[in-house]
Amino acid sequence: MLNLAILISGRGSNMEAILKAIKTEKIPANTAVVISNKPDAKGLEIAKKLGVKTEVVDSHDFKGDRWEYDKKIIAVLEKYNVTPENGLVCLAGFMRIISSEFIKKYKNRIMNIHPALLPSYPGLHAQRQALEDGAKYSGCTVHFADEKVDHGPIILQATVEVKKDDTEETLSERILEQEHKIYPEAVRLFALGKIKLKEN
Ligand code: GAR
C-alpha cells in the first residue's frame, strides 16, 4: 500500500482533508508521518488528534542550505519507510524550497498544492497577485514538484471565479474549499495507480 508523508509549516487544513479521506477509506493509503519544519505549526496538533505520528525537523538553522536540511527530512522519511518505491510526499503548505537532490531522489513522488492556476502566480501571495492583476478567474493546482518553485506536471486544477468585491481573505477562503477537494482526489488517483506521466 502507498505510504504517505505529509509536510506542513502551519495551519494544516489540506493535510487534514487528506488525513480524513484516508481515515474514511476514500484513499487506499497508509499515513506514515506528518513532518513540520516549524515546531509550533497548528497542523501538528490536528494530526496528533487524528492519531497520526508527527515529527518536527526544525528549519530554523537551515535557511540557505536546502540539501543539508532535506537530508534530515529524508532520514525521517526512511525511518517511516516512505521510500521512492512505495511512498508519496505531499507538500501541504510546506513553505520551503525543496532541493533538486530531494526532487531527483523522489522523482514524481512529491506532490504540491498551490492556490492559483499554475503556471500563473507561483510563489507567495498567489491570491493577492490574482486580485492585483484583475484576473476574472483563479483557482488551485495539484502538481508533481520539479526543481522550480510551484512548478511541474499538473495533475488537477479547480477554477474559482474572482468576484468584484473579493478581498484576499474571501478569495483565499473560496480557493481553499476547492483545495480540500482536489488534493485528496489527486492522492486517491495516485494511490490507485491512475496517474500516468508521459513527457510531463
Ligand atoms: C494553502 O493555500 C496552499 O495552497 C498554500 O499554502 C496554504 C496552506 O494552507 N501553498 C502554497 O502557497 C505553496 N506555494 P494549509 O496549511 O491550511 O493547508
What structural keywords apply?
single chain; 200 residues; Rossmann fold; seven-stranded mixed sheet; 22% strand; binds glycinamide ribonucleotide
Which helices and strands appear, and what pairs or packs with what?
Elements: E1 2-8, H1 13-23, E2 29-36, H2 42-49, E3 54-56, H3 66-79, E4 87-91, H4 100-105, E5 110-114, H5 126-133, E6 137-144, E7 154-161, H6 168-191
Parallel strand pairs: 1-2, 1-4, 2-3, 4-5
Antiparallel strand pairs: 5-6, 6-7
Describe this structure in words.
The protein has 200 residues and is α/β, with parallel strands linked by helices. The protein has a single domain, classed as Formyl transferase, N-terminal domain (Rossmann fold, 3-Layer(aba) Sandwich). Helices cover 36% and strands 22% of the residues. The chain contains six helices and seven strands. β1 (2-8), α1 and β2 form a beta-alpha-beta unit. α1 (13-23) runs parallel beside α6. The protein starts with a strand and ends in a 9-residue tail after the last helix. Glycinamide ribonucleotide (GAR) binds at residues 8, 10-14, 43, 92-93, 113-115, 126, 150, 176, 179. Glycinamide ribonucleotide binds at residues 8, 10-14, 43, 92-93, 113-115, 126, 150, 176, 179.
What's the quick description here?
The protein is α/β, with parallel strands linked by helices and 200 residues long. It is 36% helix and 22% strand.
Quickly count the domains: 1
Share in β-strands:
15-25%
Q: Over all CA atoms, what is the radius of gyration?
A: 16 Å
Termini distance?
25 Å
- Which term fits the overall shape? globular
Give the full name of the CATH homologous superfamily.
Formyl transferase, N-terminal domain
CATH hierarchy class name: Alpha Beta
What is the residue-mean pLDDT, rounded to a whole number?
97
Low-confidence stretches are: none
Report the bound ligands by name, code or SMILES.
glycinamide ribonucleotide
Fraction of residues in H or I helices: 25-40%
- According to CATH, the fold-level topology is Rossmann fold
Please trace the helix and strand order, writing H or E for each element. Answer: EHEHEHEHEHEEH
Describe the strand arrangement of the main beta sheet, using strand numbers: 3-2-1-4-5-6-7
**Second-tier CATH architecture:** 3-Layer(aba) Sandwich
User: Can you count the beta strands?
Assistant: 7
The major beta sheet can be summarized as:
7 strands, mixed
Structural class: alpha/beta
